[in-house]
Design brief:
- Helix content is 40%, strand content 13%.
- It contains 8 helices and 6 strands; from the N terminus they run αβαβαβααααβαββ.
- Strand 2, helix 3 (124-137) and strand 3 (144-147) form a beta-alpha-beta unit.
- Helix 2 (92-108) packs across helix 3.
């Protein structure tokens, strides 16, 4: 009886194994059969879209080793019960969030580096956040630039549209705010501008005459200067092709921009050349930091989004 049971059990296990193998093979064949359809569908939908190096219309043969680092700060928590913007001042928590964001910025911006500028939206909650950051940690920046282009609004109708059921903007409001926020993006986000070189003309140049001896001397100086191949011209040539590695000695400029959740989310997607209508699919904490970097060849990187790790759990809020 015992031997018969073992024989039956072995036969059953073998049958189960065969069945599982058949199911796996059928499953794999199904995946293999469907993959060409998925690949073709992606190709038809132009999923593999190439990067537009001239996205800011500032592409040129003149490239530098400078990288713009822009720190985007969402304002602190504010009083939403106010009747208008003048009453939308920061709460006690919002002021704490602004101070913590300022300290975090002071820690991550290299010591001795002065931010090129601090820019703020003209809405009360952003202005107050910017003032706290500047007064407590960046007094060396004399003034805070302010722009109406960075005010909050609906950049474009989101997809999926989960805002309209809760009283989102009208089509007219999207039309108005969207154009303004897009203008703000184009104003704020662009590659580093090459330094302007002023040419001082001497008397010979003014009269458009140059002697042969002067030309020979200039050629000799250039040959001596270029010996070793480590000249400014060689460095520029190394980054002449978009996407190529920048010279080892890179310079970073830092800017601090205080504005709003919708504006930041829309700008990130535009900068990365992703569908801007996806802006409502993620959120940003109050007082959080988003860091973007823009190279002179037009390449962009988002290093972090809505960083609030410097806050305690009880100091984090979304509204």
């Amino acid at each position: 009886m015992h031997r018969a049971f073992r024989t039956t059990l072995s036969s059953s296990l073998a049958a189960c194994a065969a069945l599982a193998a058949s199911a796996t093979l059928a499953s794999n064949e199904g995946v293999v059969n469907v993959m060409p359809n998925i690949i073709k569908e992606n190709e038809d939908n132009n999923v593999k879209k190439k990067w537009d190096y001239n996205w800011d219309r500032m592409d040129s043969n003149v490239q530098t080793s400078t990288t713009r680092v822009i720190h985007l700060v969402r304002h602190g928590q504010f009083n939403q019960k106010g009747k208008d913007d003048s009453k939308h001042s920061l709460t006690a928590l919002g002021k704490k969030q602004a101070s913590l964001a300022g300290k975090r910025l002071r820690d991550i911006i290299p010591q001795g580096t002065i931010p090129k500028r601090i820019v703020s939206s003209t809405m009360t909650r952003a202005e107050e956040t910017a003032q706290i950051i500047r007064d407590e940690y960046f007094k060396e920046v004399e003034t805070i630039e302010k722009s109406d282009l960075l005010r909050e609004g609906g950049p474009t109708r989101p997809e999926p549209d989960t805002w309209t059921p809760y009283g989102g903007p009208s089509e007219a409001e999207y039309w108005k705010d969207g154009a303004r926020i897009e203008a703000g993006f184009r104003w704020l986000f662009h590659r580093p501008k090459p330094a302007k070189v002023k040419k001082v003309l001497n008397e010979e140049e003014k009269t458009t005459t140059t002697t042969t001896a002067e030309k020979n001397d200039e050629t000799k100086r250039n040959k001596t200067k270029n010996k070793g191949g480590d000249t400014a011209a060689a460095a520029a040539a190394a980054v002449a092709v978009p996407g190529s590695p920048l010279p080892s000695a890179q310079e970073e400029t830092h800017e601090i921009v205080i504005c709003h959740g919708n504006v930041i989310r829309y700008s990130i997607l535009r900068l990365l050349q992703l569908p801007p209508e996806a802006w409502l699919r993620f959120s940003l904490y109050n007082g959080s930091l988003t860091r973007v970097e823009i190279r002179s060849d037009g390449l962009c990187s988002v290093r972090c989004v809505s960083d609030a790790g410097f806050m305690k759990p009880e100091e984090i809020s979304l509204n």
